[in-house]
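Exercise 7b. Backbone tokens:
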């Protein structure tokens, strides 16, 4: 596999001391070749401005390292909500994060697909997505970040949990060119895709590409799960230690992930526990190392 097609592997990085001072030094420490960050409190609505010095150092630092960067929006965002104030705050948050993503040279801004909350509100919620997000997407500059829809674990009448759910979701957004997809292995497992058996991950990624088309997949969150397939629960754990990669097939599901043709050039980040054996970062170092080894083995076999 040509290097440009090789999926870079990294992590969601903590940025307590600033995007560059905290985030990039963390990335270096764990060997991350792709980064995902929050640009504000992930559990609040505040739209935080950047620190100009940290922003500039982050842009330069990512370019020097040749690592793609992504932003994850706060967890409260739900454009499908029945509560008008939540819809408006969500749209403002997405627009803000896209603006920050453009300032920071990010490739994508990840947003959870959201939920209709009520079982009978699915069609209404998809209409809300259409009406509220198309103007935001139209405002994204050509070289700006794409908005990456991440299917969730399910529950609350999720607007997209299985990969097939992305079909009507992207149709509601008129398959806008500024939209991409973020695939989370733990969420897909929770939504009922059996990734733990031989061929399970491959079949799921085949179904994903069949649903959204080539080139839409822009980021993968590689996480193992503490819960069973179809549980609709979202608790991440270290790769190979959970119910996806800790069974009879071992880390085979993640080997299939790193070998799949739809992954060409698509960055992978882990959102697994960073702490391991008393070290604050060894968990990420280990998970990144595992995915790189699986990727390189697949490339050598190709
Ligand atoms: Zn995720």
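Sequence design result:
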């Amino acid at each position: 596999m040509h290097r440009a097609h090789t999926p870079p592997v990294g992590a969601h990085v903590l940025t307590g001391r600033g995007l560059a001072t905290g985030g990039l030094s963390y990335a270096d420490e764990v060997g991350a070749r792709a980064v995902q960050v929050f640009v504000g409190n992930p559990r609040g609505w505040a739209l935080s401005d950047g620190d100009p010095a940290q922003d500039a150092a982050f842009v330069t630092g990512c370019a020097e390292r040749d690592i793609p960067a992504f932003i994850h929006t706060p967890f409260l965002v739900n454009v499908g909500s029945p509560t008008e104030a939540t819809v408006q705050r969500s749209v403002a948050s997405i627009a803000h994060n896209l603006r920050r993503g453009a300032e920071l040279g990010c490739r994508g801004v990840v947003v959870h697909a959201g939920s209709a909350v009520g079982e009978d509100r699915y069609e209404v919620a998809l209409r809300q997505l259409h009406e509220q997000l198309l103007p935001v997407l139209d405002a994204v500059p050509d070289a700006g970040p794409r908005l990456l829809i991440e299917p969730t674990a399910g529950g609350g009448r999720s607007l997209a949990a299985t990969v097939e759910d992305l079909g009507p979701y992207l149709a509601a957004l008129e398959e806008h060119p500024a939209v991409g997809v973020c695939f989370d292995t733990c969420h897909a497992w929770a939504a009922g895709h059996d990734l733990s058996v031989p061929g399970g991950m491959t079949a799921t990624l085949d179904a994903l590409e069949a649903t959204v088309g080539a080139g839409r997949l822009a980021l993968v969150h590689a996480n193992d799960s503490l819960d069973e397939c179809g549980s609709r629960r979202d608790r991440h754990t270290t790769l190979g230690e959970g119910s996806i990669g800790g069974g009879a097939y071992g880390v085979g599901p993640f080997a299939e992930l790193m070998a799949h043709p739809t992954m060409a050039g698509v960055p992978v980040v882990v959102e697994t526990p960073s702490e391991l054996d008393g070290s604050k970062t060894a968990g990420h170092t280990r998970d990144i190392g595992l995915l790189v080894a699986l990727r390189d083995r697949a490339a050598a076999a190709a």
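Instructor comment: The chain has a mean pLDDT of 96. The two ends are 7 Å apart (CA to CA).
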